[in-house]
Amino acid sequence: MTDLSHPALPGGLPDKRQVAASFSRAAASYDSVAQLQRDVGHELLGRLPTNLNPSRWLDMGCGTGYFSRALGVRFNQGEGVALDIAQGMLEHARPLGGARHFVAGDAERLPLQADSCDLVFSSLAVQWCADFAAVLGEAHRVLRPGGVMAFASLCVGTLHELRESWRAVDGLVHVNRFRLFSDYQQLCRDSGLRVVSLESRPQVLHYPDVRSLTHELKALGAHNLNPGRPGGLTGRARILGLMHAYEQFRQAEGLPATYQVVYAILEKPL
Ligand SMILES: C[S@@+](CC[C@H](N)C(=O)[O-])C[C@H]1O[C@@H](n2cnc3c(N)ncnc32)[C@H](O)[C@@H]1O
């Protein structure tokens, strides 16, 4: 059960303790359903500057450590730090290796020294951070001059079919909230980091039915944790209403779920 006893953070994003608990619970099931996360992280890896050779790199929001292992292979001369807010994820990732250090911590308050990293890599984690300016400030602080921050995140438009279908049923918040792409642009511009590239690209997955989508979100730990979400069991009539409403989006490949993915490469000026 999701713990509702903690107050929600301002800004409409879920409480971090709930995020950590939800991802910890999802650690065992995450890898089996993380195809989008794999595709996005590989795309982000492909966008890293080819001449990058970090002596110390950070995988921020490492989850099960899949990309910590990829970074460890690519930068095998460097010292890797894998960091996550969810203990359950770190316990899953640590025995699989890839990084030298596995650290519990918050992207908004990194437990790392200033000027201590050459690369901050973060795939599909910072959409969970209410204070993205703080995340950028921390990346700026821990990067050495010339260091790179590469992140992938999600913005408004993500899961819009699910959001609109729920709205047709009861008008309540059933889908996680996301920042506008223009907010990412503004915050990156104001960060003191140089914006090398920043773009948003849609990626659409297809499901045979609504249940397959909502089960997958739960297995990822990414189901709705927003303040204002409906409590209690989701009644049968509402589920049927949701299934009916979602059908308007059906395509030949199945029911679409759009992810609006943000990719950014930023650099700390010399
Ligand atoms: C969708 S998973 C992505 C994991 C991994 N990067 C990947 O691509 O497979 C998001 C991860 O971000 C972590 N996370 C969420 N908020 C965080 C925060 N404030 N600081 C550090 N990690 C956070 C979650 O615990 C979760 O493991």
UniProtKB/TrEMBL annotation:
**SUPFAM superfamilies named in the record:** S-adenosyl-L-methionine-dependent methyltransferases
Q: What class of enzyme is it?
A: transferase
Give the protein's function.
Converts the free carboxyl group of a malonyl-thioester to its methyl ester by transfer of a methyl group from S-adenosyl-L-methionine (SAM). It allows to synthesize pimeloyl-ACP via the fatty acid synthetic pathway.
**Originating gene:** bioC
Q: Which domain of life is it from?
A: Bacteria
Q: What sequence ranges are listed for the domain Methyltransferase type?
A: 58-151
Which HAMAP family does the UniProt entry name for this protein? BioC (MF_00835)
State the name under which the record lists this protein. Malonyl-[acyl-carrier protein] O-methyltransferase
Which E.C. number(s) belong to this protein?
Answer: 2.1.1.197
Q: Which Pfam families match?
A: Methyltransf_11
